[in-house]
Design goal:
Distance between the termini: 14 Å
Structural class: alpha/beta
Strand order of the largest sheet: 3-2-4-5-1-6-7
Radius of gyration: 16 Å
Shape: globular
Oligomer: single chain
Number of strands: 7
Order of helices and strands: EHEHEHEHHEHEE
Largest sheet: 7 strands, mixed
Amino acid sequence: MGKRLTLILGGARSGKSTYAQQLAVRRAVRGEAVVYVATAEAGDDEMADRIAAHRAERPAHWQTLEAPRAVGAAIQSGAGQAGVILIDCLTLLANNVLALLPDAVTAAEAEAALAAEVENLLRAYAASHAEWIIVSNEVGLGLVPPYPLGRVYRDALGRANQRLAAVADEVLFMVAGLPLVVKSPR
């Protein structure tokens, strides 16, 4: 199919991951390898259960690359000659990056840390010949978080989503399991 970057946005339980996996299956033509890049970390039993459920939904022959941070570098060293790279998800990657920052982090520091992660991801994409699919939550449609860290997180992820959308060939927005085309391939 050729090199393409697809960004899939949506709210919680909107069908983003399921749709992204279906898209990866369709786009892995001629038996190309799919590398699933998992950014989640199991911090508690509920998250461990979610990770296990996601793992069970994926085709067994897909390679899984666990990379909670430094995803661009992990892909460059561990994705080999994959035809499709699916990153699920930028939302948890943002959480992992921002969680390492001091408690009194400023909005500018948080945005800079996440922006650096996204730029490294885009450098890896530029060096890759694979088709990429990136999943992320759209967190700007709800209420303004009532606490500073929530607002910092929402703003940093929103700007990261904007950066990826600007570069992406295709942007989809998931609503109730249905994809809405926000940006179509050129």
